[in-house]
Predict the structure.
Amino acid sequence: MSAELRQVADGFSYRVRSFNVYDVNGYRFHTTGYEQSRPNRKTTNTGVFTLGQDGVEYYGRLEEIYELKFRGSVPLTPVIFKCHWFDPTLTRRTTNVGLVEIRQDSKLPGDDVYIVAQQATQVYYLSYPCQTDKRLQGWDVVYKVSPHGKLPVPNNEDYNNGREPPPTPPPPPTTTTNTKHQT
């Protein structure tokens, strides 16, 4: 058995560090409690997205940030996010425009609320301004945030409105000329 696996099997210290703010993957995450304590904030950094092992997209809000410390010769200190996950079965998608909508009043059934911080991607949620329309009430649009200092890589959809690019024409034939030098 490897030393790292033995460390994990022995368990982590009962003392854990807790954070209100944590930077990972080019994002700065805040806990919901921290943001609520700042009434004049200009940004919202509590939105979390992760792709599950089952291929399902999970959206949620960051509630707590913990750093665990495993005893042993190698320093193992993973950071864990505790999240309120929204029910993925109540997610609406409009794939032709890339729109994802969630209901923040929903909750994922079960007790699986933790992810390793490196699995998190930051998103934010924007409510529809027209709440008199019954089709929009309670729904929020999901916006994926670009990591700080990194621009998203363009793809064909950015340039072709989702259409396949036209085939690349073959290169023109090359010709060689044979010249002889006479002296």
Remarks:
- The chain has one domain: 3-146.
